[in-house]
Amino acid sequence: MASTLSYRVAAPAASGRQRLQGMARGAEPFLLPIALFALWAVGAAQGWISAQVLPSPQFVWETLSDLATSGDLWLHAQASLQRVLVGFVVGSALGLLLGAAMGLSKTAEDYLLPTFNALVQIPVLGWLPFVLLLVGIGEPLKYILIAKAALVPVTLGTLQGFRQTPATLLEVGNVYGYSRRQQVLEIVVPTAMPTLFTALRLGFTKAWLSLVVVELVASSEGLGYLIVYGRQLFQLDLVMAAVIVVGALGYAIDRLLDWAEARVAARHGARPTPKGLL
Amino acid sequence: MRRNQAFTRRWRGLAVPFAAIVLWALVARLDLVNSALLVSPAKVLDTGRELLSSGVLWLNLRASLARELTGFVIGTGSGLVLGGLLGLWPRFNRIVGPSFNTFKQISLFAWIPLISVWFGLGDVAKVVFLSLAALVPVVVNTADGMRSTPATLLEVARVYGYTRAKTIWHVVLPSAAPAIFTGVYLALVYSWLATIGAEYLLVSGRGVGNLLIEGSEHFRMDLVLFGMVAIGLVGWLMNASARTLERALARRLGR
Description:
The complex is a heterodimer.
Chain A: H1 16-46, H2 57-70, H3 72-104, H4 106-120, H5 124-135, H6 139-163, H7 167-175, H8 180-217, H9 223-232, H10 236-268
Helix pairs in contact in A: 2-10, 3-4, 3-6, 3-8, 3-9, 5-6, 6-8, 7-8, 8-9, 8-10, 9-10
Chain B: H1 2-29, H2 41-54, H3 56-88, H4 90-105, H5 112-119, H6 123-147, H7 151-159, H8 164-201, H9 208-217, H10 221-252
Helix pairs in contact in B: 2-10, 3-4, 3-6, 3-8, 3-9, 5-6, 6-8, 8-9, 8-10, 9-10
């Protein structure tokens, strides 16, 4: 009559050596960046590389803080963020409409999808000279191009989401005698939500990427403009500071979208979506 | 009845572009819009024919493609090595992986101004940029593919007493093949996109992107439109050939 009590066995205390190993593991991701940074700092200090080719870390840091305190950074960052938001909203709205139309109606898809696919073949940068000639170099140019960048993944993702309604659910709807409208509103749309959100997320990433490119080529303010401006004046410290800000912002936005996507997936039931390359 | 349906559906796809071109030609013919930018479809075709026959298009296209292929080869080659290291060597992955992930977050184009300072404005800078553009997807997909070898297969290899090298060659690589191929395919696409961008930002020499920029600078809508079509066609060709290749490989590898 052995008792069936379950024992909670405490994990043995980590030996000193294991703890050291644990700490070493934790430090590993930082080894390379620290080494590179040290190389950079020493190289700049020793004058191995001229300041025009690679400014010292302190210089870049000073420039970065100057930008932040003088308010310039915010000015340019705001211009960039505004563009990407407007472009993204417009592009996604259109993308959702287009994707929904094509997803819900085979006829619409027949008429629109081939043309859409053909236009997609031309990258955003390919459209730039064309749109430039049409609307000049002002804000509409940026909005249009960023909208186009967001439109493509959102449309395709929405189309896919509306297409992938599980047949079983549709059958249940049929059994209950759902009208087409009910079917769409209560079955197709809710099941498409996770895919839709992933598409929106991809759209935003593309929009952000195009923002940088467009600002590099044709703008007079914004983070991309800072990069070009610094380059033209050979102020590499400015260039590097701007690149750092672009990277940091992009990373922050990415994290935010990751978190939001996880929330949506938790609410609507995670569906395996391919984490493709962006 | 079924055949009729499929036929009709095919033709529907052409309805919109056809209508658009007709509308465009009408507007141009009737001079409805007063703008120097409005060129008729016929003019675009003429310009296109001229560019083709004079060899200008081919010259520029060849320059762009040559650069792209060079960058693609260099980037893919080094990407396969780096991706392989990251996928097969856990310690390397822990040390280099996070830094690489951070690096790939930053839009590649943001590096162009720095690249232009370090490598000048010519072909070298462009190829460096293109190599980077090709490198990133290859590394990510190769590392991913190698790391995702199913545990069951690895266990079989261990049961058979395979050495590490044999395991890699006979188990890991074939299982990672689709992912690696995806990476290479993406590298091709990305390096083509990067080619155009590089030509905008590092304006020197010949290239299809240069054609477009010239067109927009001289307000020649016909050049711009034709250039866009050319770019789209090349992109499409690459996509199509990569897809065909992928299907052929999948069939050969028995998937």
